[in-house]
Design a protein that fits this description.
Layout (H helix, E strand, L loop, with lengths): L1 H6 L2 H9 L2 H14 L4 H25 L3 H8 L1 H34 L14 H50 L14 H12 L7 H15 L5 H30 L10 H16 L3 H36 L6 H20 L3 H14 L1 H12 L12 H27 L1
Helix pairs in contact: 2-7, 2-9, 2-10, 2-12, 3-8, 3-10, 4-9, 4-10, 4-15, 4-16, 5-6, 5-15, 6-7, 6-11, 6-12, 6-13, 6-14, 7-10, 7-11, 7-12, 7-13, 8-14, 8-16, 9-12, 11-12, 12-13, 15-16
């Protein structure tokens, strides 16, 4: 049992990166605003995104190289496009997840504005942002991948148990008949939310690139990490992300549906509202339980995104210029951390807007990642034994059509309003 658990890693890192804003914020809001009415969207987008996420660890474990090398083999322009797209969204994504994490830390562990030494312009949430980023940097610098691999297993276990227990108690306290009727958003605001909801459910498709790099790192630490292990590892993480996504929708429904609450766009206020609503419904005893579930959700996302984006940016430049840079990862992680802090201080009061921008960008760029991942895994660059099955081919075609169709529909609908 322990030896099998030891072989898990990249898939759990994927889950740690995926189970974040999409679950805690978007899924909870979906449940609060639509009840269980958007479960169809959650299941559908997870189904159609599945093959493109799976192609990351499949390609990496079968070839010994990440998707970045594969993109370069398909054409230098594809890798350059990926680099530009990632540069355009990584600061917004990191800021969005860090804002929520800092807000939760402030709610759970208290106001630390007394540490600002009289600088009144710095809020407690902003100080928590610096502390959390510093803690993540320390973990990544000192422990590197192996520590992250071990830490995420603990975080995922705590997250899963606390969330499922919270769902159970919320269900037992829910007195109204459960409504399973599915709905389709109609207003402009509802449609924008639907796209944002699906944009990061379970995660942006570019995380497939991160996963491929984590799979290579895992192979360095665990020589017996085979393609078969990689696919099992991925499936466990993916199914776990789906289950927890549905769990957070249920929590939003059981606790917040028809409460008339309007969520704040400010990180600190949003976090307080979120936890207070749970404790009002379930009782004060639930404060710690919900707090642990929420904070571990967001901390896992913050640390995995902080690790992954610098890795892909550094490696992309190495491939493009055919030159290894010893400190590339360190340079990019500092650039990302500094950029996150600057954006945070400028837009701390616009958490909702940042999340909306990041999630919508992720959705409209999803067809690009879907197409190139499918093209690469089906090409001569992938060993024939590990190319997709007929079922995966069909699901991939359907997924590409779904993502392109929804993106076109979304842009068309916006022009009509």
């Amino acid at each position: 049992m322990f030896s099998q658990l030891k072989k898990l890693g990249p898939g759990l890192l994927f889950a740690g990166a995926a189970i974040g804003v999409s679950h805690l914020v978007q899924s909870t809001r979906a449940g609060a605003d639509f009840g269980l009415g958007l479960i169809w969207a959650l299941i559908l987008v997870n189904l159609f995104k599945y093959p493109f996420f799976q192609y990351g660890p499949r390609y990496a474990s079968a070839t010994g190289e990440s998707l970045l090398e594969g993109y370069h083999k398909l054409g230098k322009g594809i890798l350059i496009t990926y680099f530009i797209l990632n540069l355009a969204v990584m600061f917004t994504i990191q800021t969005a997840v860090t804002i929520v994490t800092a807000g939760l830390a402030n709610s759970l562990f208290g106001d630390i504005s007394f540490l600002n030494f009289g600088i009144e312009s710095i809020s407690s949430v902003e100080l928590w942002t610096i502390i959390i980023l510093s803690l993540c940097l320390f973990i990544l610098f000192v422990g590197k991948y192996s520590t992250l691999d071990k830490l995420i297993k603990v975080i995922i276990v705590i997250l899963t148990i606390s969330t499922l227990v919270a769902v159970y108690f919320a269900f037992t306290e829910f007195e109204a008949p459960i409504n399973y009727v599915q709905v389709f958003p109609e207003s402009k605001v509802e449609i924008v939310f639907l796209i944002a909801f699906m944009g990061w459910m379970p995660a942006p498709l570019d995380i497939s690139v991160w996963h491929s790099i984590w799979a290579i790192e895992k192979k360095k630490d665990e020589a017996s990490f085979t393609p078969k292990n990689a696919l099992l590892d991925f499936n466990i993480g993916y199914i776990g992300a789906i289950i927890l996504g549905i769990s957070f929708v249920c929590l939003g429904y059981f606790v917040m549906f028809n409460t008339g609450e309007s969520f704040s766009a400010k990180a600190g206020e949003f976090s307080n509202q979120l936890i207070d609503l749970y404790t009002k419904s379930l009782g004060n005893w639930a404060y710690i339980l919900i707090g642990i579930a929420a904070f571990t959700t967001m901390f896992s996302t913050t640390i995995t995104t902080l690790d992954a984006s610098p890795r892909v940016m550094s490696r992309s430049l190495e491939i493009l210029f055919n030159k290894t840079h010893k400190y590339g990862y360190l340079i990019w992680i500092f650039i990302l951390a500094i950029g996150t802090v600057l954006i945070f201080f400028a837009f701390a009061s616009e958490m909702g807007l940042l999340i909306k921008i990041a999630t919508i960008l992720s959705f409209v760029t999803a067809p690009f990642y879907a197409i190139i991942n499918y093209k690469l895994i089906s090409s001569k660059h992938t060993p024939e034994a590990w190319r997709p099955s007929i079922i995966l081919h069909i699901l991939s075609w359907a997924g590409i059509l779904f993502l392109i169709g929804f993106s076109i529909w979304y842009i068309t609908m916006l022009q009509q309003f």
